[in-house]
Amino acid sequence: MTSPILDGEIRDGRHHMQVRVYYEDTDFSGIVYHANYLRFMERGRTNHLRLMGASQHALFEQAEMETPGFAFVVRSMELDFLRPARMDDVLDVVTWPVAVKGASITLAQEVKRGDEVLVKAEVRVAFISEGRAKPIPKSLRLLMKADVAE
């Protein structure tokens, strides 16, 4: 089940999800601990996929029939930490697909405070089934490509 308030929304081919910074997200200096940005971005990717699945349920069912037990796993990630976030900041985690290839999808992500980009990331996610990389089913490839902003 999806909740627009919790899951964010897709606007102009990009998923936007708000996150508030809590005390537990910060280090001794009061800024967000670097590893916590990974958690924020993971939530963004998960909710992006959840929202696509909610609107394209039949496609996900078809993919499950073609490749039972499929999952997406992070293969590689490149991060640029540009500016710090602090307690009580409201951040916008933005996620969008950049490239869809055989068994992987490359996503771009930004963590923003207003119009200011704090962290940029490029994430390559592999499609696996039964513990091994598999080609992404056509139904999901088409869905992801449809979301690629040009």
Topology readout:
Blueprint: H1 4-7, E1 9-11, E2 14-20, H2 34-55, H3 57-66, E3 71-81, E4 90-101, E5 104-113, E6 116-129, E7 132-133, H4 138-147
Antiparallel strand pairs: 1-2, 2-4, 3-6, 4-5, 5-6, 6-7
Helix pairs in contact: 2-3, 3-4
Number of E-type strands: 7
Radius of gyration: 16 Å
User: Rough shape?
Assistant: elongated
**Poorly predicted tracts of residues:** none
What value does the average pLDDT take? 86
| Straight-line distance between termini | 30 Å
Order of H and E elements? HEEHHEEEEEH
- Strand percent estimate: 35-45%
Helical segment count: 4
Helix content: 25-40%
What characterizes the major β-sheet? 7 strands, antiparallel
Structural class: alpha+beta
How would you characterize this protein structure?
The protein has 150 residues and is of the alpha+beta class. The two termini are 30 Å apart. 24% of the residues are buried.
